[in-house]
Amino acid sequence: MRSIERRFNNFQITRPNVSSLLNLAAAVKQQGFSAERVSRALTQLVDKEDYERKDRQAIVRHLVSLSQEKKDAEAYGNRSLNGAVGAKNSPR
């Protein structure tokens, strides 16, 4: 939980005008957290006025899917996308 909480707190400081729910989404994105940890973080960190109670399960599912996304570099085999072979503006 400390990892989520630490990342969440950093986002709360750097983005004070953004809702706590959006900052939690940013904190868990591509970090591989389990549904249980994400659910616990939602309960402990997010302002209850930021979401409807009836939407909680859908929110947890979405946050878990964000957490499980692969990073762009991994999705593209860790190759640089800027200097891809055959790119229009590649220097030769």
Question: Structural class, please?
Answer: mainly alpha
Radius of gyration: 17 Å
N-to-C series of helices and strands: HHHHH
What is the number of helices?
5
Q: What overall geometry do the principal axes of the alpha carbons give?
A: globular
Topology:
Blueprint: H1 2-14, H2 20-28, H3 35-45, H4 56-68, H5 72-75
Account of the protein in words:
The chain is mainly alpha-helical and 92 residues long. The protein has one domain. Helices cover 54% and strands 0% of the residues. The protein is built from five helices and no strands. It is globular, with a radius of gyration of 17 Å. The relative contact order is 0.15. The mean pLDDT is 85.
From the structure above, extract its key features.
single chain, about 90 residues, mainly alpha, 5 helices, about 0% strand, globular
Summarize the structure.
This protein has about 90 residues and is an all-alpha fold. It contains five helices and no strands. It has one domain.
